[in-house]
Amino acid sequence: MKCMNCGAELTDSAYCPNCGCDVSVQKQAIVLSGLYYNQGLEKAQVRDLSGATDQLKRSLKFNKLNIDARNLLGLVYFETGEVVAALSEWVISKNIQPENNIAADYIRNLQQDSNRLDVINQTIKKYNFALQSCLDGNEDVAVIQLKKILAQNPKLIKGYHLLSLLYIHQGEYEKARRLLKKAIRIDKTNTTTLRFLREVDEQTGVPTTFESHWSLLGSRRAAGNADSESEEQKKRAQVAAYRQGAHHLSVMNLIVGLLVGAAAVWFIFIPARTRAINQAANKKVTEYSSTAADYSAQIASLTAQTTAAQSEAAAANSTATDANNKVGAITTLLAALNYYENGDTATAKTIIAQVDASLLGADAKGVYTDLADRLSYDTTGGTASSGSTTADTKTTEADTTANTENADTTATGD
Amino acid sequence: MINYEEELKKFKPSLDVDEAEGAIYSRDLTDVIDILKEMLKETSEKEKDR
């Protein structure tokens, strides 16, 4: 600490060792600055950014050279979307203390991310345009612009405030409530946010609830009276008891869950599976039955074909037999005719008796009848009749012819 | 009941990055110690005049 008059280094004394100036007030101002800084830091740690801003500004009012307070104020501004204000504080801080100052790092980080800086700059310009639109009465344009701004810079508290105000003015209280809840998460005690929320609660008749167990008003923590403490103790005891019971309850729930699962498997899954298996089996049976029917039809067809073929074969055999018999009869007749022509009428007669005339054709039958007449063979079973005279004549002629031939042969031989 | 017009008047335009330099130069950084200095200076000048 330096003397405000001459700049000499101060001691514990209330007077400057160099110029003798009364520095007690200066020392008190510096102590107060530190005190306000500490309070600002506490508020910033619990996200009471509006409160932190007030305290830090007071701290700097007492001592503008309080670098810690200035840097923290810049951070708080940055967290509420006020980037230019944050940059201002950090630049001033860096000018007061160029060396060993974290503000230099903050500025460097911001300058290195030029894209982000550009986006922030654009959102600020759009916010100003939206505000002007509101003043000109173009609320719809302002709403659209503000939605875009909050999408790009979701920490801009006054963007939430302005859009909430527009929604409240248009009667869209639930939309305003949603926005204000987001704003509350950034800065818990912002008066504008709280006032707008109260308006929404009054207009809708529904109080706004918050997810976090950190109470917005902090009444329980700020109160600290015996009743609330005893209530807290009772609730803690109830919570502890609930937790013990919850352990048994969870085991019971597990067992019940397992039983329900087993029942579901038994009554739902297994019948369905069985039904599927039966359906598959029935389908197979149907397929096999169809195939068997096809085979049966084929077998019947083949059997019929076989029967027909057998019939044809039998007929063919019969025809062959008949033909063989006919051939046999004809052969026998020829044999008889041969014996007759050779003069062996007795043998010829014997043989002709073996001929079945019914098997002979018309021509063969004529020969047979003729031969039978010659041989005086009764084809009906009796001796030869007038018909046989002709046969005898023919036989005599045949003998004469045969003798003549024999004589010729003998004469030739001589 | 919130008055829309009155609430709207409370909203001020934000400074963009291009205007940051001017804002810094125009900042009033007077603190209590500066006031004390001024008071000391005036007191010493009055004593000199006497």
Descriptive overview:
- Chain A has 414 residues and is an all-alpha fold.
- Chain A is built from 15 helices and no strands.
- In chain A, 78% of the residues lie in helices and 0% in strands.
- Chain B is mostly helical.
- Chain B is 60% helix and 0% strand.
- Chain B has three helices and no strands.
- Chain B has helices spanning 4-9, 20-25, 32-49.
- The longest helix of chain B has 18 residues, at 32-49.
- Chain B starts with a helix and ends with a helix.
- The model of chain B has no long low-confidence stretch (mean pLDDT 86).
- The interface between A and B is medium-sized, with 42 and 27 residues.
Descriptive tags:
heterodimer; A: 414 residues; mainly alpha; 15 helices; rod-shaped; disordered C terminus; B: 50 residues; 3 helices; 60% helix
Rg estimate of chain B, integer Å:
21 Å
Structural class of chain B: mainly alpha
Measured on Cα atoms, how large is the radius of gyration of chain A?
68 Å
Mean pLDDT of chain A: 83
Largest interface: A-B, 42 and 27 residues
* Total beta strands of chain A: 0
Biggest beta-sheet profile of chain B: none
Q: What is the 3D form of chain B?
A: elongated
Strand percentage of chain A: under 5%
Strand content of chain B: under 5%
Give unreliable regions of chain A as ranges.
382-414
Mean pLDDT of chain B comes to: 86
Classify the oligomer. heterodimer
Question: How many H/I helical runs of chain A?
Answer: 15
How would you sum up the global shape of chain A?
rod-shaped
